[in-house]
Specification:
Rossmann fold, elongated, 10 helices, 12 strands, 309 residues
């Protein structure tokens, strides 16, 4: 694919210039996302950024590249042509998310909260920590990020199972089950982790019916907030189906001040930081993708429009 005019939506020029070489034949425009004009969009053959600009129309573009792993904000816009290429960024997202999940599992197994409370009470109260190897962990999503999370817990000896739409077997999972038949598996889980993207199929997938299969498991969501029905989550916590929840993504971000999620002792909230994009790394990944496009090489980060990821 021959691409000459590339519009970069955001104030990234200085970082891009550090990685540009004399080999590139493209022309770049670096414009803050809210200042992009219709003329800029008409000029561009490729659009690069974290989100669509006002008036974004993919119909005239050959290629759109997102600096994020999730691309639902682009897919929500009409006008995509069959031959328009949409790619996303992977970078070290899987490693970052794996470490995030591992940190909260270890926090629980090592009784950090319990020992901190005993310290404040000046009480010497031994309690034997548990080990990861004794856990059963179910991961929703068996793509690149899900596999990286599975790899991390597999290396510690945990029993790791996957859940996906297809049920296709993947590395680092003892078994991958279809979403529609995951109920019995969830009853066995100590931890259930969602790495799911937001699609029509995953929107509010975690509802009352799905949570009813939890048997006291802890829940981590590092996928997309809207995959969880937050009312159903609260009901699951109240009923003891869910032991507690770690939420890095919420349906509405930032989370409104009046949300009841803030004040619950059985919910930990972090502000969407489990896989923060390192811009230098993301820009390097963009140039790798550009070179592959120029050489007509296979792209591992190309979005399948029928799947939404």
């Amino acid at each position: 694919m021959d691409i000459k005019n590339i519009l970069v939506a955001g104030e990234y020029e200085e970082l891009f210039q550090k990685q540009l070489t004399n080999e590139e034949s493209q022309h770049f425009r670096f414009i803050p996302v809210d200042e992009i004009t219709l003329e800029d969009l008409s000029w561009a053959e490729a659009y690069i950024g974290s989100k669509p600009c006002p008036g974004f129309n993919p119909s005239n573009l050959k290629w759109v590249h997102s600096f994020n792993a999730g691309v639902n904000n682009f897919l929500e816009i009409d006008g995509w042509k069959e031959n328009t290429l949409l790619t996303r960024t992977f970078c070290s997202f899987g490693e970052r998310i794996s470490e995030y999940c591992l940190s909260y599992v270890l926090r629980d197994l090592q009784f950090h909260k319990y020992f901190k409370e005993k310290q404040s009470q000046k009480e010497w109260a031994p309690k034997t920590p548990k080990m990861v190897k004794d856990l059963t962990i179910v991961i929703f999503g068996s793509g690149e990020i899900g596999q990286e999370v599975a790899k991390t817990f597999d290396q510690f000896g945990a029993k790791v199972y996957g859940v996906s739409q297809s049920g296709k077997q993947k590395d680092f999972f003892k078994e991958v089950t279809k979403t529609t038949s995951s109920g019995p598996l969830l009853t066995l889980a100590d931890w259930i982790i969602s790495t799911l993207p937001l699609t029509k199929e995953t929107n509010k997938l975690f509802d009352n019916e799905l949570f009813s299969n939890f048997n006291g498991a802890a829940f981590i969501n590092v996928g997309r907030g809207a995959t969880v029905d937050e009312k159903a989550l609260i009901e699951g916590l109240n009923a003891g189906k869910i032991r507690y929840a770690v939420l890095d993504v919420l349906t509405t971000e930032p989370l409104p001040d009046d949300s009841t999620l803030w004040l619950r002792d059985d919910i930990i909230i972090t502000p969407h930081i489990s896989a923060v994009t390192d811009l230098n790394e993301a820009i390097s990944y963009f140039f790798d993708t550009l070179r592959k496009i120029e050489k007509n090489e296979k792209l591992l980060n190309q979005v399948d429009f029928s799947k939404g990821y």
